[in-house]
Amino acid sequence: MSDRVKIAAVQMEPRLMNNRENLVSIIGGVSKAAANRANLVVFPECSLTGYIFHSREEALPFAETVPGPSTEEVASLCRELGVYVVFGLLEREGDRLFNAAVLVGPQGLIAGYRKNHLPFLGIDRFCNMGDRPFEVHRTPIGNIGIYICYDIVFPESSRVMTLMGADILALPTNFPQVRRETLATYVVNARAIENRVHMVAADRVGSERGYSFAGLSKIVSASGNTLGLASPDKEEIIYGEVSLAAARKKRLVVIPGEYELDYIKDRRPELYGLITEPGSGDA
Questions:
Q1: E-assigned strands of 39-141?
Q2: How far is CA 90 from CA 8, 96, 203, in A?
Q3: Is 115 considered catalytic here?
Q4: Which residue out of 6, 78, 149, 208 is catalytically annotated?
Q5: Quick count: other Cβ atoms within 10 Å of Cβ 241?
């Protein structure tokens, strides 16, 4: 395993209810990023389907199984190019509907994730809540955790994957333009800093049924430095190269013996019990 990993975030404008056209765009983005020697390529939330559906019934025809036709097509390309890809889609299992993301690599489908925190917005109003715990997936390009958009607002999501050994947290997202400053500008960097993990947030651009999206996809190092930042309104690919060793070095030594911090060992879990109690903080 090489210590250096080149990450690409593909900022795109998915077409609502047009899986085929969106898949062509995803395949094109993977090919272009791989030509620029990216090892990991991340796409937005619901990049296969679009996001602003008006009902569950409207969305279900565009949901796919995992594995399914789109994951298989992307996996074939990953085998050819030797890259790893995370992209968002709607997943159907029986009569259940999930806002999902998948991690695909040269070996095929590695993992699927179902969004655990659902805002009252777009398709999330009609989706089933994620039914799986957060996971970290060991790959030749590092340990990768996946979550989706609103999940990042809950810091426990990032922290638990950090404790599982994540080097890179991949966040397919559809940040609304109205929350651009708080989410895209500040929160992504904060999660990188407080956990000392590399972050990649792939956002979408454009408008869909009256809703505008923030863009500003970004790649942030474990030290909190922004390595790549996209525009607020253009389809583009950004890149950032990270060190796995940097994400695994949780102890920060500013002045040896005088100024040292350890973001994991300095925690006091015995003080945080209320966080895990259902309904804690409810009015």
A1: 40-42, 84-93, 96-105, 108-114, 136-139
A2: 22, 10, 16
A3: yes
A4: 149
A5: 16
Domain of 110, CATH number, reads 3.60.110.10
Q: pLDDT at position 34, please?
A: 98
Based on the structure, what is the number of domains in the chain?
1
Catalytic residue among 13, 46, 115, 208: 115
For the segment 1-15, what is each residue's pLDDT rounded down to a tens digit? 689 999 999 999 999
**88 touches 101 (CB < 8 A):** yes
Query: What kind and span of H or E run contains 239?
Result: strand 236-243
Token couple for 8: 């690409």
From the candidates 45, 64, 91, 208, give the one annotated as an active-site residue: 45
CA 59 – CA 224 distance, rounded (Å): 37
149 a catalytic residue: yes
- pLDDT band (50, 70, 90) for residue 213: very high
Tokens of 201: 């947030």
Q: Would you state the structure tokens that stand for residue 159, as one six-digit string?
A: 């922290």
- Domain contains 77: yes
- Global pTM value: 0.96
**Quick check: is 271 in a domain?**
no
Identify the pLDDT of residue 178.
84
Is the pLDDT assigned to residue 283 strictly greater than 90? no
Half-sphere exposure of residue 26, counting CA atoms within 13 Å on the CB side? 35
Helix, strand, coil percentages for the chain (3-state, nearest 5): 30, 30, 40
* Domain-located, residue 73: yes
Asked whether residue 210 is domain-assigned, the answer is: yes
Asked if 88 contacts 130 with a C-beta cutoff of 8 angstroms, the reply is: no
Segments forming the whole domain that contains residue 112? 4-250
State yes or no: is 127 an active-site residue. Answer: no
**CA of residue 91 relative to chain centroid, distance:** 16
- Give the whole-number percent of the chain exceeding pLDDT 90: 93
